[in-house]
Amino acid sequence: MIDDLVLRRQVCFALYAASRAVTDVYRPILDAVGLTYPQYLVLLVLWEHDGDAPTVSALGAELRLDSGTLSPLLKRLEEAGLVLRRRSTRDERRVEVELTDAGRALRRQVEDVPRRIAGATGLSETELVAVRDTLTRVAETIHRQKEQ
Asked: Is 137 exposed, middle or buried (0-12, 13-18, 19+ CB in 10 A)?
């Protein structure tokens, strides 16, 4: 009989341990440019959509963050001069977020971050893509189940 209540058999622990390990690799890299990991994630979305000025709610949906978590991140990024928040001219109820020139310039300083993180994992590109795709599928499946 296999005992399911063994730590090393828990998917949740493997995810937790991997997440902590990867975040530990990110921390000193991002500290060097004055960012936290969550701030980096926000900037990744804004760099991807540069010129579109997504709304706070659209950012939250993409990052799966609620406004109580996202708003302080945006406030700190705005205080650092990396983003601007402003009311939409089309709909005053919506707040749009856009990169400043400093926010755009920061992108060049962190261009090697994905490569450095990938190198730290010791996985091949094929393995990394497989891990990412599997984890994305897990997250999306659980997210869909929660919404039902």
From this structure: exposed
